Amino acid sequence: xxxxxxxxxxxxxxxxxxxxxxxxxxxxxxxxxxxxxxxxxxxxxxxxxxxxxxxxxxxxxxxxxxxxxxxxxxxxxxxxxxxxxxxxxxxxxxxxxxxxxxxxxxxxxxxxxxxxxxxxxxxxxxxxxxxxxxxxxxxxxxxxxxxxxxxxxxxxxxxxxxxxxxxxxxxxxxxxxxxxxxxxxxxxxxxxxxxxxxxxxxxxxxxxxxxxxxxxxxxxxxxxxxxxxxxxxxxxxxxxxxxxxxxxxxxxxxxxxxxxxxxxxxxxxxxxxxxxxxxxxxxxxxxxxxxxxxxxxxxxxxxxxxxxxxxxxxxxxxxxxxxxxxxxxxxxxxxxxxxxxxxxxxxxxxxxxxxxxxxxxxxxxxxxxxxxxxxxxxxxxxxxxxxxxxxxxxxxxxxxxxxxxxxxxxxxxxxxxxxxxxx
Length: 423
Prior knowledge:
By secondary structure, this protein is α+β, with helices and mostly antiparallel strands. Helices cover 28% and strands 24% of the residues. Helix 8 (334-354) crosses helix 9. The radius of gyration is 22 Å and the shape is globular. InterPro entries: Acyl_CoA_acyltransferase (IPR016181), GNAT_LYC1-like (IPR055100), LAT (IPR053013).
């Protein structure tokens, strides 16, 4: 039997856009990769992205990540830019130089909330793996690919469930490692991209046991309940919180359990490779009140506790917060929230030290989180970094067809823009 060349879960996608786009190479097409093309893309981009992995281990990791709950059934798609007039053997490319550029997209559940109170469940696509092999660089192929991709994603259906066929694509995101200008020129607007960095080694004045006395370590089995409660909280928060002046719409990538498990599949693979052990502590939970329940009850918002879900970066030896759940702060609970955040900082430091890591990161922290870090590690021992070149969160907005909606880039607020959204 001849080998399959396409994924059975891949939706049908037009090879050319339905309306003209001003691209440098109008004769080229962007289409889903065949299985051999997908595998070859991993081979050619591995020198840049495999990090501490061997080429074979990198190949195995990418295959492993493609079969997670988030990515199976068409959740991840692989794309190639090709010249339809050029010679190629997509079924079994012996010399697949016909792949001019390549990338991948991951489908995620999201929300859009408008200033008139409307809440819309949408799909977003996270874009990653943008790569052009050396022999094809400098010819504008990546630019053409991204222009075509941005256009095609807008109408890409969800193939995993026919009942979701009506759910439209609201936006797409990427995290640029080449600064802000390249992707901005092809439609992805840069948004706030900052992080707080603090050391894993705590000052001698900090008593870890007293600070984390009531903190609970988050296990893999706890994630489903925590993520469900967190998503309930986010839905209510984004709908009822007043809009800032000039903001017409908010968007959120929901930190579902499937999203978290994809990140943890990545860390566990690297952990096994680097140390022969996989991390079992997925975060930390801290109560605000004596009656706070762990895990929180289904349907609640987690307003009586704070928690951090993190991932272990074995390549750079850092602990990175994927999501920091902080309940709305009021005059009545501010002290309790601050104490809980300090306890989470200490718990994260303990986990980082257990793995020999030296640094902890949290993306786009609020003022209270920064204050908590400062009170634990000291004013001179942490950095608030505004990134200009790497992991630049960038977003392309898709207007609704047939509607009167006109939202300019500056009128969009991207909330809960944390590491969990990265791909």
